[in-house]
């Protein structure tokens, strides 16, 4: 069983930065793929970024085109935490952000494939 808790959301002006954290419980979290998703009011949940395992100790990071060059995802297995660094935020980035974990090490863009979810953290970008 994996429990996820997000933090780091808040109100920020356009052009600003936030770092979201996804802290996990459970001793095998390092074997899970982790994705960040966001959902704005009236819109479907969308994939933002994910970390997935490759062969050996390395992992791969993926970000969706909408945030490429502005967002970065990375994990710290020693802290059982995955971070989403968000830079140059714009109004379209306002949403509820959630992290999710998937056994097997992959981080697909389909939210239905994930096993565990956090409760989310709100990000609001103002002009």
Polypeptide structure, described:
- β4 and β5 form a beta hairpin.
- About 0% of the residues lie in helices and about 50% in strands.
- The strands form two sheets. Strands 2, 4, 5, 6, 9, 10 and 11 form a seven-stranded mixed sheet that branches.
- The chain has strands at about 5, 10-15, 20-25, 35-40, 45-55, 60-65, 70-75, 80-85, 95-100, 115, 120-125.
- With about 130 residues, it is mostly beta strands.
Descriptive key words:
seven-stranded mixed beta sheet; mainly beta; 127 residues
Any idea what the radius of gyration is?
Answer: 14 Å
Structural class: mainly beta
Order of SSEs = EEEEEEEEEEE
How many helical elements?
Answer: 0
The tally of beta strands, per DSSP, is 11
Q: Note the main sheet.
A: 7 strands, mixed
Kindly report the oligomeric state of this protein: single chain
What number is the mean pLDDT? Answer: 91
Low-confidence stretches: none
Ends apart, CA distance between termini:
40 Å
Broad shape: globular
- Beta content: over 45%
Helix content: under 10%
Short description:
By secondary structure, the protein is mostly beta strands. Helix content is 0%, strand content 51%.
Question: What is the secondary structure topology, with strand pairs?
Answer:
Layout: E1 3-7, E2 10-13, E3 18-25, E4 33-39, E5 46-53, E6 59-63, E7 71-76, E8 81-86, E9 95-102, E10 116-117, E11 121-126
Parallel strand pairs: 2-11
Antiparallel strand pairs: 1-3, 3-8, 4-5, 4-9, 5-6, 7-8, 9-10, 9-11
């Amino acid at each position: 069983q994996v429990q996820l808790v997000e933090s780091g959301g808040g109100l920020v002006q356009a052009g600003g930065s936030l770092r979201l954290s996804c802290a996990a419980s459970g001793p095998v979290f390092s074997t899970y793929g982790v994705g960040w998703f966001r959902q704005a009011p009236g819109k479907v949940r969308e994939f933002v970024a994910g970390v997935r395992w490759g062969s050996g100790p390395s992992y791969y990071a993926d970000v969706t085109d909408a945030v490429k060059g502005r967002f970065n995802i990375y994990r710290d297995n020693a802290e059982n935490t995955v971070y989403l660094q968000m830079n140059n935020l714009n109004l379209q980035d306002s949403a509820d952000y959630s992290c999710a974990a998937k056994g097997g090490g992959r981080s697909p863009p389909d939210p239905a494939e994930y096993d565990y979810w956090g409760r989310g953290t709100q990000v609001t970008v103002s002009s």
